[in-house]
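Anyone? Bumping this.
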Amino acid sequence: MKRNVTEAQSSATASAASPDRGVAASESYMNPAQAAHFREKLIDWKHSLMKEVERTVHHMQDEASNFPDPNDRATQEEEFALELRTRDRERKLIRKIDESLMMLDAGDYGYCEICGGEIGIQRLQARPTATLCIDCKTLDEIKERQLG
Ligand SMILES: [Zn+2]
């Protein structure tokens, strides 16, 4: 017994796909070297902020001595309030830096949370915790202003 398979002539119309259309650009964006650069930048920033927070705490502990003059006390309380606000801002920033580091791990860093587009190296250099591209950020700010 012989099975004769008549091979249908395959239509050899394999399209000659161009090897790189736009791929090169997105490959160079946030490549391992860039990701490493931003990781280092974020970690350095976080460390200096943590040092700053620590310094503020120590400063407040040192200054928390008794001021017999009520005016001095009032001034001191204002200073403390200001320092607490600064510390709060630093803490929030540290949290944002942690989020950015997690995004780096996940490979999402550098891409806009809204449109998924590239945030851009220059923008990230200036604002390493940016999660929105400049277009979405601008729109966001306009919306915020209208709501507020
Ligand atoms: Zn966007």
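Late reply, but here is one note on the structure posted above: Residues 4-26 have pLDDT under 50 and may be disordered.
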